[in-house]
Amino acid sequence: MQERAIPICPKCGYDQSGIIATWDHACPLQGQCTECAYEFQWANVVDPARVDLLWYTEHIHRKRDLPYRSLQTLWRLLLPSAFWCEVGVHTRIRFRNLLLWLLLILLVLHALSLFPVAMGNWHEQWGMMGARGFREFSTYAPLAYLYELHNAIFSPFVRIHYGYYGFGYTLGGYNNDELEAAMLICGFVAAQSLMWLIIIWVLPITRARSALRAAHLVRAFVITLIPAIFFFELVRVITGLFNWMPASPMMNWFPFVFLALMALTLIWLYWFWIAAMKVGWGIRPVWPIAILGSIAALLSGAIVFVSQGL
Ligand SMILES: [Zn+2]
Predict the structure, then answer these.
(1) Which chain residues have CB less than 5 Å from ligand 1, an ion?
(2) pLDDT of residue 129
(3) Does residue 17 sit within a domain?
(4) Residues 215 and 258 both lie in one domain
(5) 193-219 average pLDDT score
(6) Between the CA of residue 250 and those of 245, 253, 280, what are the distances in Å?
């Protein structure tokens, strides 16, 4: 698909149409931005889609490529340095595709978590009573199945309660702990990434010296919402499994698995931002921002934890 947009410097966003207008009867192949000194090929500035990546979901053209591109993109994201090696300042930004892809990831993970969440919900209300619970639950069928489906979809935000104590709509899960846990864990990851974004955005040395378009920072931040989505769904699954089979010995392992996943995610997150600056955007020197960003992100994570715990 072709778009007639204003030709801009891919790095700093400076309008290049004035220079193009000075071309009389010949056009150069190579160019340099007068604003940020970034060197480029003119063909890529006039038509940025020329250098679209064949594996990347942001540059998708046909829906049927989605499974292949999703796997390829997630695979490369596992190693942030490898990802930013290919996704640089010259890589076209397509926020619409990126956000739709994130929505798809959320929907797929949400669908996968429905079963353990539904079993957990059901067990909390009816399963405790054994066979009698199932008989009572059955007296509300077939509507009860719809209620449980609704509760599994909207857990831990809102819930329909029904049965002996009547019918109603409540905010939160069975108790507000489930909502708090999901928000705390999700916010813990997202807040740290947001702090990286803010630090890189406001520090005069990064923005002035590298003249980086803000859209590049926002793209990096949007990608880091993937682990936040993952942890939101993971909390749903773990809460569901705990309610479903609280006595299972498997449950003893969950805190350790969870902590290990969280530690790996935070290492990935910091690595992702540092690799973006160093490999993707060519910021030099990167270490002062890396140190400042790490400290600020750790502090913001701690603040989220303490404020939620009180
Ligand atoms: Zn420029």
Answers:
(1) 9, 11-12, 14, 33, 35-36, 38
(2) 82
(3) no
(4) yes
(5) 85
(6) 9, 6, 42
